[in-house]
């Protein structure tokens, strides 16, 4: 991970291994464990619960999501205590 990456990208990398929710611009929802993410925000999820905009729910093993299709990404609340954010908070305060 490069030092020149912005805070949102670093936070997305911190979410690897955690369950996240991704809502596409089309209204479809994917909730699963983030396996990988790239600096351009494209990400791969595993063990996904997919909810179509009509409400149909499916279980999927792997999904690759392109950032151009993403409307919203929800990361776990526990990442607010991520070491990267603590270092940033210390820089801001001090």
Automatic annotation (TrEMBL):
SMART domains: Sm (SM00651). GO terms for biological process: spliceosomal snRNP assembly. Residues 10-75 form the Sm domain. GO terms for cellular component: cytosol; spliceosomal complex. Keywords: Cytoplasm, mRNA processing, mRNA splicing, Nucleus, Ribonucleoprotein. Its main location: cytoplasm. It is found in: Cytoplasm, Cytosol; Nucleus. InterPro entries: LSm4/Sm_D1/D3, LSM_dom_sf, Sm_dom_euk/arc, SmD3. SUPFAM superfamilies: Sm-like ribonucleoproteins. Belongs to the snRNP core protein family. Core component of the spliceosomal U1, U2, U4 and U5 small nuclear ribonucleoproteins (snRNPs), the building blocks of the spliceosome. PANTHER family: SMALL NUCLEAR RIBONUCLEOPROTEIN SM (PTHR23338). This is Small nuclear ribonucleoprotein Sm D3.
């Amino acid at each position: 991970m490069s030092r020149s990456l912005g805070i949102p990208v670093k936070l997305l990398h911190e979410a690897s291994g955690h369950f996240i929710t991704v809502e596409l611009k089309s209204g479809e929802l994917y909730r699963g464990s983030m396996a990988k993410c790239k600096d351009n925000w494209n990400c791969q999820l595993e063990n996904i619960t997919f909810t179509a905009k009509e409400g149909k729910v499916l279980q999927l093993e792997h999904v690759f999501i392109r950032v151009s299709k993403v409307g919203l990404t929800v990361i776990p609340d526990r990442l607010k205590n991520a070491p990267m954010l603590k270092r940033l908070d210390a820089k801001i305060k001090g």
